[in-house]
Each structure stands twice: as structure tokens, then as C-alpha cells.
Specification:
Helices cover about 35% and strands about 20% of the residues. By secondary structure, it is α+β, with helices and mostly antiparallel strands. Strand 12, helix 12 and strand 13 form a beta-alpha-beta unit. The protein starts with 16 loop residues before the first helix and ends with a helix. The structure holds histidyl-adenosine monophosphate. It is found in: Cytoplasm.
Length: about 425
């Protein structure tokens, strides 16, 4: 039995976890400004939710779910994405009946997909996502796109490409679907086994096939944009007008399909165009969904959202050489020697921490010189020294590591003194 972490998972160790915290805080702050509030849903749900929500014909449901039977004989699945759970919660808690619609949520947490791991593709990854439920206003589509883009821009990314498409309403989709079947049916035998099934179940999925990508029929496949009815066409135009007023650059790609079944009207992805980003260039994706709330047992309500993985975001930051302003230093290291000094050091360390100051000390019984070395390695701003001499005089020696300045401070004034040093008295 291997004692390594399972394939496609990773440990996030100090040095990197600070970056995660920083990014998570920035994203939460962005959501606050757009007035999206945090929702936390369970990590596992009834399998049926994803089968019906994400769609039976998707790769996610057919090949990638972590599904197991629990001890009560129920089929349970580790969530492969967040939208279905958010919609389930919205319906279950009858949030649609509350005043102040639309309902605007954000979420952050681990998702699970049994995919073939490679750089940027994990089996456990963390998604940050938002969902706005209960409005059909194209302006909210543009708001979601703006938030998605700004989440990257504000962290310092520049090489971004926003690709948008419309998948139309049900009527448009049905017309397009019939056209796709007419187009691909003569080539049925030349398509992969999966696509032959897709052609019957959900022909749109054929356009998304990785195996048949090079088939000549792909290039000439009918575009959804030719099948949009007036309502869908007008909707898409309005979304684009709102993007224009916000000066958001985008490209329309009629072949953008997305890997989940619930979309109609607006669909989009954001790609990284940074050199050396890797084979997978999609940073995030999302779109509008109309049938999902009803599918889960709620009233006819539509929503729009998007999700990104933090893993791919951090990869993009690295590819663009963006340094995150994370502080990995230490405020105070307490150096002490001798039993009584050690006892006092424990007491003062505790008091400093309770006063809001970050402090660490030696726990390996090191000599004074080695303790100083440790303080230096940890990047401590101040070193407090308490030896026999200082004890006798009722003082602590305070050394400012940047300036090299030293001063003796009375033991009973040390908390106040350090507070002033570190916060400038604020
Ligand atoms: P998705 O396109 O399946 O959409 O995933 C969204 C994002 O999650 C991807 O663009 C990527 O950043 C990240 N992601 C997906 N799979 C992996 C993986 N195996 N490893 C690392 N990152 C991954 C959804 O999940 C929809 N729920 C988005 C949405 C929200 N649509 C409407 N609302």
C-alpha cells in the first residue's frame, strides 16, 4: 500500500498556503464589492443531483464522478462542481421566495473529478465560483463576466482572453440540435464510439469531442448562431452591449460548447494567453442555465455563474511572473537562556500573543547563538533576549534586526513597547 497522497491530489505546504490565503481573501473581497455572499454546501450530495443537474451525457457524469454507496445503501457522490449543489440549496431552502432577488452567491471549496491528472488538471481541486439566481436581465450576465475577469486582473494577470457564445433558448437549441444530427449522421460510422452515442443523446457534445476534433465534418458543422431565434439573438446582443459599455474585450466563438449540459444563452470561458502556461489554457468557464432550478424541483427560475480553479489561477500567476504580496516573516523571536528566564519567556510570549503580536521561540533547547541564528532564518523583525543578566536587572534586550539597534526595556513595559514598535502606536 502506498503512503503517498492519491494521484491527482496535492499537499499545500507553508510557503504556498500563504498564496492560497491571499488569493482567497482577494476573491472574497471582490465578491463583497459585487455584493455576492458566501454559501457553503456539503462536499457530497445524492448522486442523482449531479446526474440530473450536470447531465447524464456529460463526461463528468459518465466517467469522472467519485460515487460510492454509503452504509445506508444510498448512492453518494463527491461534488464534481458547485452549481448543482448551490441550486439544490436554493430550492431546498426556498430562497427564491425571499425578498431581495436576485440571489447572489459565491463559494470556494474542493471539487472532485476522476480525470487523467496533468498540470492544471487534478482529481481534487479547489473551485471559486459565483451564481446569480432569479434574474433574466442580460446585465447580470455581463456582471458575472466582469467579476470573472476582474478576479484575474486584480491579482495582476494581463494575458487573458474572454471567449463568449450563445447557446440560445430551448427552441433555438432544438433547431440547432436537429441541424447537427442532419450534419453528422452521414459520418456516424467515422466518429468515435462516444460520439455515436452523443449524436443520439446530446449532439452538441460531439463538437466538444477531443478524439474527433480533426474530423473534417467538425469544421463545417452548423453554428448555433445561425439557429438563434429572435429572443436569443436579442439577448446575446444585449449582453455584448453591456460588455462594450464596460470596455471589456471579448471574442465570439460559436464553437464554444462547455462540458456541462445545463447551459443556454450565454456561455463563456476565460483563457490564459501567457507563454509557458501549459497545454490546458482554460482558466475558468460559466454561463446561463434555465432548466436547472426546475430539474431540482424548484420554480421556473434561471441563473448564471462561473467557476475557476485556484490551482489554474496560481499557475497563470506564475506564468506571468506575478509576485503575490504575502508576508512570510515573523514579528518577534524570543531568545532565552536558563530555567528562570525560560519560564519568564513563556509567560511574556503568551502575553505578547494575547496582545496581538506574532511571536515564536526556541523549543529545541538551543544555545543562545543558535537561537539568534534561528531568529535570523525566520526573518524575525525583532529579537527579544532574556538571560541571567537581564533577569537580574528586570529588563529585556530588544534588538531591531533591520537596523541592528538594541535597547533595554523594563519587563513590565515590554508589551506596550513592542506594540508601539510594531504598529507605530496605532
Ligand atoms: P467547468 O468548466 O467544468 O465548469 O469548471 C470550471 C473551472 O474549474 C475550469 O475552468 C477550471 O478552472 C476548473 N477545473 C475543472 N476541472 C478541473 C480539474 N480537474 N483540475 C483543476 N481545475 C479544474 C463548472 O464547473 C461550472 N459549475 C461553472 C459554472 C458555474 N457554470 C455556471 N455556474
Amino acid at each position: 500500500m502506498s503512503m503517498n497522497a492519491p494521484r491527482g491530489t496535492q499537499d499545500i505546504l507553508p510557503g504556498t498556503s500563504e498564496k492560497w490565503q491571499y488569493v482567497e481573501e482577494q476573491l472574497a473581497d471582490l465578491c463583497r464589492r459585487y455584493h455576492y455572499k458566501e454559501i457553503r454546501t456539503p462536499i457530497f450530495e445524492h448522486t442523482e443531483l449531479f446526474q440530473r443537474g450536470v447531465g447524464d451525457s456529460t463526461d463528468i457524469v459518465q466517467k469522472e464522478m467519485y460515487t460510492f454507496e454509503d452504509r445506508g445503501g444510498r448512492s453518494i457522490t463527491l461534488r464534481p462542481e458547485g452549481t448543482a449543489s448551490v441550486v439544490r440549496s436554493y430550492v431546498q431552502n426556498k430562497v427564491y421566495g425571499l425578498p431581495n432577488q436576485p440571489t447572489k452567491y459565491f463559494y470556494m471549496g474542493p471539487m472532485f473529478r476522476y480525470e487523467r491528472p496533468q498540470q492544471g488538471r487534478m482529481r481534487q481541486f479547489v473551485q471559486f465560483g459565483i451564481e446569480a439566481l432569479g434574474s433574466d436581465d442580460p446585465a447580470i450576465d455581463a456582471e458575472v463576466l466582469s467579476l470573472a475577469l476582474n478576479s484575474y486582473r486584480e491579482l495582476g494577470l494581463q494575458s487573458l482572453k474572454l471567449v463568449v457564445n450563445s447557446l440560445g433558448d430551448q427552441e433555438s437549441r432544438e433547431a440547432h440540435r436537429a441541424a447537427l444530427v442532419r450534419h453528422f449522421d452521414p459520418h456516424r460510422e467515422e466518429l468515435c464510439a462516444d460520439c455515436q452515442v452523443r449524436l443520439d443523446q446530446n449532439p452538441l457534445r460531439v463538437l466538444d469531442c477531443k478524439k474527433d476534433r480533426e474530423h473534417p465534418a467538425m469544421e463545417t458543422a452548423p453554428s448555433i448562431l445561425e439557429y438563434l431565434n429572435d429572443y436569443s439573438k436579442d439577448y446575446f446582443e444585449q449582453v455584448q452591449q453591456y460588455l462594450d459599455v464596460m470596455d471589456i474585450d471579448y471574442v465570439v466563438d460559436p464553437n464554444l460548447v462547455r462540458g456541462l449540459d445545463y447551459y443556454n444563452h450565454t456561455a463563456f470561458e476565460i483563457m490564459s494567453e501567457a507563454e509557458g502556461f501549459g497545454a490546458i489554457t482554460t482558466l475558468s468557464g460559466g454561463g446561463r442555465y434555465t432548466g436547472l432550478v426546475q430539474e431540482v424541483g424548484g420554480p421556473e427560475t434561471s441563473g448564471i455563474g462561473f467557476a475557476m480553479s485556484i490551482e489554474r489561477l496560481l499557475m497563470a500567476l506564475e506564468a506571468e511572473n506575478v509576485e503575490l504580496p504575502t508576508d512570510e516573516g515573523l514579528d518577534v523571536f524570543f531568545v532565552s537562556l536558563g530555567d528562570e528566564a525560560n519560564r519568564t519567556a513563556v509567560k511574556v510570549t503568551d502575553e505578547l500573543r494575547r496582545a496581538g503580536i506574532q511571536v515564536d521561540k526556541d523549543y529545541l533547547g538551543k544555545k543562545m547563538k543558535a537561537q539568534f541564528k534561528a531568529a535570523d532564518r525566520l526573518g524575525s523583525k525583532f529579537v527579544l533576549v532574556l538571560g541571567d543578566q537581564e533577569l537580574e536587572n528586570g529588563v529585556i534586550n530588544v534588538k531591531n534586526m533591520a537596523s541592528g539597534e538594541q535597547q533595554e526595556v523594563a519587563l513590565d513595559r515590554i508589551i506596550e513597547h513592542m506594540k508601539n514598535e510594531l504598529t507605530g502606536g496605532k
